[in-house]
Amino acid sequence: MLILLTLNACAQQKKQTKQKYDVAAFYWPGYHPEPRFKDIGVFPDGKGEWEAIYKAKPKFAGHEQPLVPLWGYENEADPKVMQKKIATATKYGVNVFIFDWYWYDNKPFLEEALDDGFLKAPNTNDMGFYLMWANHDHNSYLDPANPDKSKIYWKGGVDRKTFENMVKHVINDYFKKKNYYKINGEPVFSIYELSTFINGFGSAKEAKEALDYFRAEVVKAGFPGLHLQAILWGNIPSTLNDVPGDKSQTQNSTVEYFGFKSMTNYQWVHFTAPAGEYKDWGKKAISQWSVWDKAFTIPYFPHVSIGWDNNPRFPTTTQSFVKNVNPTDFEAYLKQSKDYLDSHPNQPTIITVNAWNEWAEGSMLEPEKKYGYGYLEAVKKVFLDPK
After folding, report:
1. Is residue 379 part of a domain?
2. Beta carbons within 8 Å of 1's beta carbon, 6+ residues apart
3. What is the pLDDT of residues 328-354, one digit of tens each?
4. DSSP, residue by residue, 107-166
5. What value, to the nearest 5°, has the Cα angle with vertex 94 and ends 89 and 97?
6. Cα-atom radius of gyration of the chain, to the nearest Å?
């Protein structure tokens, strides 16, 4: 495997001290008055998914709902609000946000948090960011008022023309920002659902041609290349039957075929059932790292999730969740992620965390009522103040 060196996009900024380890937290941009929420009739209070959070109720005795944000129900599209998030994140060692990013019906969705909040914050260049294209179908999963979670509002797959429009927007409006996160000078772009991406084009061959086009356009824009990152879970197909002569039977063959350069997870729930104690759930998830080490030839960036409880999105039914989520166990998993990076010296020193603010799924670094800044203190202790 070729040696990869991390180019920390933030290190170019005078205000930020370069960190040895980049801690990248996924950011769910659902807490602002997004105009397109009105198109699908969700969150009539006009505060985005905060509505599901402050209306959540415990399902049984001891169920820790609702979760209460220490900062209140703020509008993330306000640059002053995002200024505080950036200052807090970087103070505790979270130096990259990975924005969940959407493109439906050939136009963006939920971009205001990034465009109007993050990028217009006076301290935006203190922190790096990159995009994870959350290209899943958008269904009624987010709508607490709808018990039928199968209703689809927008399809996640795109055709070639739509993809080319999207690529132009991404390169011109994001990749060219000083604080867009890069590895070896290459902008990092993550794809959430590879199967959905393939199906949108009709075949793996056409999907690969679209990614080749993306790479060529990135080079035309003056970058040395494109760093494609795969989200590792069951949505990566292990067979590509429509490719002539392809006999691949592994996910690794698939990511190699499409030219991905790294992979990480979005959430432990994607491959470890959300049940029982947090300490046990985390151990099961992390046990997969050694399996992937042997199964894949591209670097894996270790991932740590904080918890799982998506019951605020299901007010009439009880969903499986993880018990006793706490900063102490979270810190132990962060230490294991650091150890993983230390044992893989030939790859970029990046870990990913779910999430900065997945309040409706019970996984957030952002300060909350029970533990305050406890999860952020854990990050700081492991990555900024190691003993």
Report:
1. yes
2. 297, 298, 299, 346
3. 999 999 999 999 999 999 999 999 999
4. EEES-HIIIIIITTSTTGGGSEEEEEE--S-EEGGG-TT-S-TT-EEE-----HHHHHHH
5. 90
6. 20
Provide the 3-class DSSP secondary structure of residue 75.
Answer: coil
Residue 2 falls within a domain, yes or no?
A: no
**Cut 0.70: pTM above it:** yes
Tell me which amino acid residue 287 is: S
Work out the burial of residue 94: count CB atoms within 10 Å of its CB; fewer than 13 is exposed, 13-18 middle, 19 or more buried. Answer: buried
Looking up residue 68, the CATH number of its domain turns out to be 3.20.20.80
Domain count, the chain: 1
Q: Is residue 70 part of a domain?
A: yes
Q: Report the C-alpha gap between 316 and 146 in whole angstroms.
A: 9
Whole-angstrom Cα distance, residue 76 to residue 99? 12
CA 159 to chain centre: 23
Distance CA 290, CA 344 (A): 12
* Long-range CB contacts (within 8 A, 24+) of 160-163: 160/201, 160/206, 160/210, 162/103, 162/106, 163/200, 163/201, 163/210, 163/213, 163/214
- In angstroms, the CA 350 to CA 264 distance is 10
In angstroms, the CA 269 to CA 314 distance is 17
Cβ atoms of residues 174 and 182 within 8 Å? no
Q: Write out the residue range of the structural domain in which residue 174 sits.
A: 9-383
pLDDT digits (tens, 9 = 90+) for 127-157: 999 999 999 999 998 888 888 888 999 999 9
DSSP line for 211-272:
HHHHHHHHHHTT-S--EEEEE-STTS-S--TTSTT----SHHHHHHHHT--EEE-S-GGGTS
